[in-house]
Amino acid sequence: MKFNILIMTVFKLVLAAALVTASPATYDANIGSYFRHTPPEQAVLASPSLESGVGSEAFVHPSFTNYALRLTTPDICDTSVNQWSGFLDISQTRHLFFWFFEARRGPKNAPLMLWLNGGPGCSSIGSGLLFENGPCSIAYGGNSTIVNQHSWNEVANIIYLEQPIGTGFSYSDDGSEVTTLADVAVDVYAFLQVFLKRFPQYSSTDFHIAAESWGGHYGPAISSCIWHQNKALATSPMSDLVKINLASLILANGLTEPKSQFESIPDYACDGGAPYPFLERNGFSCRTLKAVRPGCLRMIQACYDTKSKPVCTPATFNCWFSMMGSLGSNGANPYDIRRKCEPGTALCYEELEWVDHYMNNATIKKSLGVEPDQKFQTCNMDVNQKFYIQGQAMLNSAVLLPEMINEGLRLLVYAGNTDSVCNYMGVERWMIRLVHDLHNEFVKAPSLVWRTKASNYSAGRFRRAGPDGGAGNVTFVEIFDAGHMAPHDQPEATLDMVTRWVQNTPWLDSN
Question: What is the set of active-site residues?
Answer without folding.
Answer: 213, 419, 484
